[in-house]
Amino acid sequence: MARLSASEALLRAKSLERRGAYAEARGLYMDILTAYPGNIRARRALEALNRRDATDRDPPPALLNGLMGLFQSGRMEALEQEASRLLELFPHSALLANVAGVANVQLRRLPEAEAAFRRACTAEPDFAEAQNNLGNVLKDQGKLDEAETRYRRALTIAPAYAEAHNNLGNVLRDRGRLSAAADSYRRAMDLKPDYVETHINLGSVLAEQGELDAAEASYRAALRLDPDHGVALSNLGRALTDLGRFTEAVECLERAITVMPAYAAAHNNLGNALNALGDFTGAEAAFRRAIETDPTFAAAYRHQSTLKTFRADDPQIAVMLDLHASDRTTPAAKCHLSFALAKAFEDTGDLARAFAFLKDGNALRKARLGYDISSDRTLFARVRAADAVVSAADFRPSAPAAPTPIFILGMPRSGTSLVEQIVSCHSDVHGAGELLDLPMAGRALVAGEAAPTQEALDTFRQSYLSALARRNAGAACVTDKAPQNFLFIGLIAKALPEARIVHVTRDAKAVCWSNYRQYFAANALGYSYDLADVVAYYRLYADLMQDWAQRYPGRIIDLDYDRLTEDQESETRRLIAALDLPWDAACLAPHKNARGVGTASQRQVRQSVYRGSSNDWKRYEPFLSGAFDGL
Fold first, then answer.
1. Rounded CA separation 174/608 (Å)
2. What angle do CA 542, 546, 552 make, to 5 degrees?
3. What is the pLDDT of residue 610?
4. Among 56, 74, 96, where does a domain finish?
């Protein structure tokens, strides 16, 4: 080029074209455009050449190297502009379209990125990377069906594509297909054992499935590969919180924040661990730091709202309202914000707006879970049918129970957390919280999916008691406070005859309202997000408890929460005696119990026992449209 003018170079390029030397002609046109970017004659000639010979789709290596340099230096705006300019000259280049898509992803221009990746996939349908990238952009925009299709297309092209297996797992998880998601993650790990993100993702799915020990192992596997991985540390801290190992969780999360101080989720998870330990000041500060780090982190607003009292002039209310109204806020985030705003407007006395946001948040949560009350009607029917198959008298345990389980159960929000605080004050009792071991080991039996043979019942018994022994801290008795263990009373009565069963009851309207106003982290309580559903579920529960009382007389200790709050000492003494435990005066001061509490009742159980909470729902009675009539 240094020896030729632009006109001379154009003549030379035309001559090369006439001789069929298209690659050399294209190179010369590109040299002209590099020296003279505005040369219209060279640009048009190159476009015509590309249309004539579409087999040579991509720009020469020198230009591709320039694009790579822009990417590596983080100059995404320049990368997008240069890729778009080159696409005008090389319109059939799938590679350039993919680069333009990557640049737009980094710039958070998802519609533009989607268009670029679609162009790449059209130009080269067997371009596995572009199919995978398009899947990612579709997933980020909530287009889960097509995202799954694109990941599967990428894997048809390249079956050993570990990243596509991992991404397919992500979209399956978002669609609630947790077992299939875990299979995809495991396939990715088989192909790429050092794939840290897949170990973390598998841990997250296992945690959602209630397999907390396995989730912990998966996070620790990720940390063996990368000891300072902030996300792995944060997720491990969350798992330890769910396992009730709150002090370990705090240590892990503080380390996560040290290595990744701008990771809002780690601050949020630390807040939850501190909250469980009763450090409400520290928890509120952690949630505040999560919000400061990421002002769009909706879950942190909801968590913080439970720890503060809002005033009408609180600037955070306006911030949450703006976020809630934004088109960029996802439905899941709006759900968190709705519950936080309901709390804020309740604090300020605007109950009409509080109920409106509560109704909105519940509707969003129900839609997210895809809940239908018919699924629980079916489950309750199957529990009854399965229980009728074998009598409790038919089972003979192969070994005595150690430690002795004390089940504290009933409807969620009925007072089970307070009762566990009381019982676990006893010197012979360890409070283990809401364990998942019973449903994990026994669901197939209670749902009629497995025959309740002597061997099956004994296997369940040993599995559950072994899990309990790992959590008893040396105590003779251990509480298991998962409220919905009421579904398993028949199995408990058969396979664990030594167990004590405490059934906590409370005013039906108070229970239903408390369920409706609560955002539950677990996905298993879908009934609670609709007033009609929560009333219907309560009736299913009440009818089943009547059946249990008839089938297993004398096995269930009934405890009325409201009576407990009105006559604490008499009811506490009656409870401890019914549990066959010697009297321990410490049980009269549950608010002094220092154990961690990982439920929605963290604040209430740190206070002295108080009366009147069962009347809270009456403030909202004008907005309920008679939903609780007949309860």
1. 41
2. 135
3. 56
4. 56
**What's the CATH code of the domain at 543?**
3.40.50.300
H-type helices in 90-229, by residue range? Answer: 94-106, 110-123, 128-140, 144-157, 162-174, 178-191, 196-208, 212-225
Residue positions counted in the chain:
631
Residue-wise pLDDT tens digits, 476-500: 999 999 999 999 999 999 999 999 9
CB-neighbour burial class of residue 262 (10 A; exposed 0-12, middle 13-18, buried 19+): exposed
Tokens 């298209």 -> residue: 22
Low-confidence ranges of the chain (pLDDT < 50): 1-2, 54, 599-603, 605-606
Residue 259 lies in a domain: no
For 574, what's the count of Cα atoms within 13 Å in the CB-facing half-sphere?
Answer: 12
Q: Strand 404-409 and strand 556-560: pairing?
A: unpaired
The structure tokens listed for 321 are: 């309202």
Sign of the dihedral through C-alpha 69, 71, 73, 78: positive
Query: What is the rounded CA–CA span in Å between residue 44 and residue 85?
Result: 13
Range of the domain at 558: 373-623
Contact 344, 313 (CB under 8 A): no
- Beta-carbon contacts of residue 447 (< 8 Å; ≥ 6 apart): 379, 382, 383, 386
The total number of structural domains that make up the chain: 2
- Distance, in Å, from the CA atom of 60 to the CA atom of 400, rounded to the nearest integer, reads 77
pLDDT reported for residue 12 = 83
CA 533 vs CA 338, 363, 424, 512, 514: distances in Å: 20, 12, 33, 10, 13
User: Whose structure tokens read 């957390």?
Assistant: 417
Query: What are the phi and psi torsion angles at 31 (to 5°)?
Result: -60, -40
Q: Tell me whether residue 479 is in a domain.
A: yes
Domain end point (choices 16, 32, 56): 56
Rg, C-alpha atoms of the chain = 31
What is the rounded CA–CA span in Å between residue 384 and residue 377?
11
Segment 331-384, tens digit of pLDDT: 999 999 999 999 999 999 999 999 999 999 999 999 988 899 999 999 999 999
Nearest of 179, 152, 146, 178 to residue 165 by alpha carbon: 152
The CB density around residue 626, as the number of other CB atoms within 10 Å, is 8
215 half-sphere exposure, CB direction, 13 A CA radius:
23
Q: Is 375 exposed, middle or buried (0-12, 13-18, 19+ CB in 10 A)?
A: exposed
Is 188 a domain residue? no
Would you list the DSSP string of 502-518?
EEEE--HHHHHHHHHT-
pLDDT of residue 522: 83
Residue 536 lies in a domain: yes
According to the model, what pLDDT value does residue 409 have? 97
Structure tokens at 13: 């390029």
The predicted structure's pLDDT at residue 19: 67
